[in-house]
Amino acid sequence: MASKSGSSGLREPPNEQAVLNIYEAMRSELSQIYSNITELEMQVSEHSLVINAIQPLDQSRKCCRMIGGVVVERTIKEVLPAVQRNKEGLEEVVKNQYEKLEKKKKDLTEFEAKYKIRLRKQDESKEDSTKKEGNAQGVLVGTASSSQ
């Protein structure tokens, strides 16, 4: 029984298909980390916009804040520090995700080197599929559909 990919003490995969499955799982995990980072960076950006919008206003002015799906009325004086703390926390999580991303990239590179994995260039695979389907009628290949 193979254990989770990327962990030390991993037994050798029994065949090429197992190596491919582990590799695809590692790539999928890398893609998920990229998605998480993008989403978190968007939240940091939104927090910055809110901070910039309310900071110059009168501190006693009322504002609304969503807490756990409920909109509550507070003053800017109460809300601003909480939004700043949340932004700092998000920035810390983004930093940790980048560290995790670098580790996973390194693991993936080592796995590629160990099993001599090479990826076909996307252009080569498109050319191959175009040559194979060149005689087909009504088949769109690539991004041609966006020009219609």
Automatic annotation (TrEMBL):
Gene3D superfamilies linked to this entry: 1.10.287.370
Record keywords: Chaperone, Coiled coil
Compositionally skewed regions (Basic and acidic residues) per UniProt: 121-134
Matches recorded under Pfam families: Prefoldin_2 (PF01920)
Region feature (Disordered): 121-148
MF-aspect GO terms: unfolded protein binding
UniProt keyword Chaperone present: yes
Coiled coil regions, renumbered to chain: 87-114
CDD domains referenced in this protein's UniProt entry, alphabetically: Prefoldin_2 (cd23163)
Cited PANTHER family: PREFOLDIN SUBUNIT 2 (PTHR13303)
Family, similarity comment: Belongs to the prefoldin subunit beta family.
Protein name: Prefoldin subunit 2
Organism for this UniProt entry: Arabis nemorensis
